[in-house]
Amino acid sequence: VRHICNVNVQPLADKLLKLNNGNMTELFTNEYQQQHGNGIITARKGVATKIKPGCTSMQFIFSSRDAMAVYQFPWLQEWLPLLQSQILEPLGIPLNKIIRMMFAFMPGDGASRINFHRDKNPWVGTSHRVHIPILTNHRVFFLTELYNRHTDTDAVLRIKSLPGDVYEFNNAMPHAVRNLGVGRVHLILDWVEDPEVNPLFGFMPKHNVTLRPGESCAQLMGKTYLTCDGDGGDGADFTDYDYEEEEEKEASITHPEANSQGNTAG
């Protein structure tokens, strides 16, 4: 975990709170976003029910499992001026270096949780994960497990952060979140240092896909790329697909429970 800097996220928070009369729970549903022109990713029930129950997201950029394809979602264009001025330009991250970017929402009062897990798949090892709290509270417990090679033991570290704190986080390490306060929104982005030549994949990304308003995509078993109902994928019918086993490849559970104890950082 590395604190990078602080940025002004108030314009982003204000814009979020004005949408749908501030009803974050409905705003972040797939149904609302699809009806109002964003693309959505369905078929993530394995992650949603076992690892991130109650958590939802607003996607701007997503990648295939091997990061050879990058998908831009319709709402990216609406949010891009603020994202550029408040986040990307201060951090010096060009848009073409980003392989994933989203708002991640956790309803408060224990209505959601992120169980201890490690993020997997090849894109994790080749990118930098950055978290930026947009809306948060002091009762958010963001926990990560660190190995102490001197004592040969694991310790749980609590990452404490305020709105606008920018920190890089190794999401290949076990981590979990509990939100016992009000709703919490983080901007999460994954970026690569060189968008042209990557030591793991060679030239990347191979495909840049712009999704249509309302387009629905899924990650299916045996599929590296998203399967979409428009031009963004191969058009396969995934409505009744049983994909839970495959989704567990995206993130592996390492602990059944997370507690609210541990050291603090930040």
Number of helices: 7
The main β sheet shows up as: 8 strands, mixed
Secondary-structure content class? alpha+beta
Can you write the helix and strand succession as a string? EHHHEHEEHEEHEEEEEEEEEEEHEE
Alpha-carbon distance between the two ends: 9 Å
Q: Per the principal axes of the C-alpha atoms, what is the gross shape? A: globular
Residues in β-strands, percent: 35-45%
| Radius of gyration computed on alpha carbons | 18 Å
Largest beta sheet: what is the strand line-up?
Answer: 1-10-7-12-5-3-4-15
How helix-rich are the residues, as a percent range? Answer: 10-25%
**How many E-type strands?**
19
- Overall mean pLDDT stands at 81
**Contiguous uncertain segments of 5+ residues:** 197-203, 233-250, 255-266
Give an account of the 3D structure.
Helices cover 20% and strands 36% of the residues. It has 266 residues and is α+β, with helices and mostly antiparallel strands. The protein has an eight-stranded mixed beta sheet. Strands 18-6-11-8-9-19 form a six-stranded mixed beta sheet. Mean pLDDT is 81; it is low at 197-203, 233-250 and 255-266.
